[in-house]
Amino acid sequence: MSDEGFLQNMKTALHEPETGPTLRRLFVNTIFDSTFVILGILIASAFSSQPNYHIVVATIVTSSVALGISTGVSVYEAENMEQSIKMKEMERAMLTSLDNTKIHRISKSTTYLLAAVNFSAPIMSGLATLSPFLILGSESIKTAAYISLAIAIAILFTVGAMMGRSGQRNPWIQGARMAIAGIGAFIICYWIESLM
């Protein structure tokens, strides 16, 4: 398949009625989960009594990549199965094979698109929260940790606001709810870490 054909299939898949809501739902869940993982990493490493710059950076990078691969592969496998079931039902109804048809290619493109978005969500969250450590370096690890925490809460607020807007709810309230959940998780986990 040519690059132009692939991109056209991706565009068509994106305009399918089920693709947009599924993309939003999976992206929100994945970025929400990955940002909470980053909060846990910050508490356990950057906010510890003796923070190690290399451990903080390596843990954020490896966790983000691992989460990206995990969610990307799991969404690919689940969506591939769902699309296969859908194709078989259509083939039974139409009494013909849909292999190598436009419908089949769009079905495959939908699977790739959903998997790619879910792979990228933890990477985006990881890069955003990692940036203060890369910019400020090992000499300002605590300052970088506080900035990274603020970025993580801002990500949660933004995702919440996007959810609110797409669900025709107040984006400020929805964003605030997500941010409060993040702050609450941080406080609880910080308290747990202080007991150890």
Biggest β-sheet description: none
Oligomer: single chain
Q: Which percent range fits the helix content?
A: over 70%
| Rg of Cα set | 20 Å
Strand segment tally: 0
Low-confidence stretches: none
The overall pLDDT average reads 84
Please count the helical segments: 6
Report the order of strands and helices. Answer: HHHHHH
SSE class:
mainly alpha
Strand content: under 5%
Give the overall form.
elongated
Taking the alpha carbons of the first and last residues, their distance comes to 56 Å
Features:
196 residues, mainly alpha, 6 helices, 0% strand
What does this structure look like?
By secondary structure, the chain is mainly α. Helices cover about 85% and strands about 0% of the residues. It has helices at about 5-15, 20-45, 55-95, 100-135, 140-165, 170-195. The model has no long low-confidence stretch (mean pLDDT about 85).
